[in-house]
Amino acid sequence: MGIIKPTNTSVESFKGLHLYHAGFSNCSMRVRIALEEKKLDWTSHLIDLLKGENLTKEYFGINPNAVVPTLVDDGVVIIDSADIIDYLDKKFTPGSLRPESKKDQQLMYDWMYLARDNHLSIKTYMYGNVKNGPNMKRTAEQMADYRQRQTFDTALLDFHERFNSNEGFTKEDLDNATAILDDCFKKMDERLKDNDWLSGDSFSLSDITWIPQLVVLKAANYPFENYPNLEKWKNAIIQRPSFRQGVLAWLPKMKN
Known about the structure:
Helix 1 (about 25-35) runs parallel beside helix 3 (about 80-90). The mean pLDDT is about 90. The chain is an alpha+beta fold. It has 2 domains: about 1-90, Glutaredoxin, CATH 3.40.30.10; about 100-250, Glutathione S-transferase Yfyf (Class Pi), Chain A, domain 2 (Up-down Bundle). Strands 1-5-4-2-3 form a 5-stranded mixed sheet. It contains 11 helices and 5 strands.
């Protein structure tokens, strides 16, 4: 994905870094943490997902998936949180967030893409387990409009078709999502048994990619107690100023 040409050309006149994001969005959290780690100035465009502000014609013209986040850098539009944080780290070189060795850099990308590839499993688990899941459902009118506009990501369209149907997610859907997440966190826990970070010897983009998953899944009561090595890793990250400013500042009532 990465850089795209928006149909809403108004953003092409933007100067500096602009971020379209939502407070309780794990993908948005990734970008905010990276921006804080890099000590970059940015302009906030907060999107209320429950009000459907991501489903407007104007926002579809900025991000054809109608999801957050979207970064606009001097008029250049970048979508997909993994691509955004990689873009930021490559362009703004001070305070590198990647390991030095090629081997560890490849490991970093492996972790990042694993997180990106499981995003629909995260959404399925969240939408199926959080108390306000029904409030996330879209109206028939919203779905009809979304169906017409969403031509960019057919898997995401299918996800919303199933979630907003009368039947909703099946037990098999939830079991499959849970199994994928269990496998991911088992691999993480094994890596963190003898390492402080997911790739290399220091905090990197791979850690930034994964820590928001713990934040949002906590709200759905995911059993992180099954993965003891994650605890030390998580505690080290939540003490960082970038976590406080990039996550907690947007979730004032959140408790660790």
